[in-house]
What we know:
This protein is mostly beta strands and about 170 residues long. Helix content is about 0%, strand content about 55%. It contains no helices and 15 strands. The chain has strands spanning about 5-15, 20-25, 35, 45-50, 50-55, 60-65, 70-75, 90-95, 105-110, 115-120, 120-125, 130-135, 145-150, 155-160, 165-170. The strands form two sheets. Strands 1, 2, 3, 4, 5, 6, 7, 8, 13, 14 and 15 form an eleven-stranded antiparallel β-sheet that branches.
Amino acid sequence: xxxxxxxxxxxxxxxxxxxxxxxxxxxxxxxxxxxxxxxxxxxxxxxxxxxxxxxxxxxxxxxxxxxxxxxxxxxxxxxxxxxxxxxxxxxxxxxxxxxxxxxxxxxxxxxxxxxxxxxxxxxxxxxxxxxxxxxxxxxxxxxxxxxxxxxxxxxxxxxxxxxxxxxxxxxxxx
Length: 174
């Protein structure tokens, strides 16, 4: 990605039916450079370019990103692009952005989806022949833990902030 999260990330989940990838930072990891995939699919993630595990999570530990070049790589066994096509896709994460300006990628799988902050609002994008972007209305807060989610049901892309529907837009296709 060309835009990086500046802040903290905790409890990342990507689901289609069952969990495809579930990043939990609560358990100690190897030299605090990896994250455990709780989905059982063996997609151990690794922190890249200086991202580190901290004790300041929403649920214990979290990953800290500097907004310059840090990111979490989901591992070489990560779900294939085809696993994210079709309907019933959910991507969620607890985030605590240090700033709410610019573009900050929260989760991305080039081809099927992007979940990001655009200035002080959430944006979710789904690709199925063409991109469908939904821009949220709820203002994101700096230095506050917030649960953000994108749900695609085959007809609509819905964004949620702290469990509240933020915005919904139509997108059809697989």
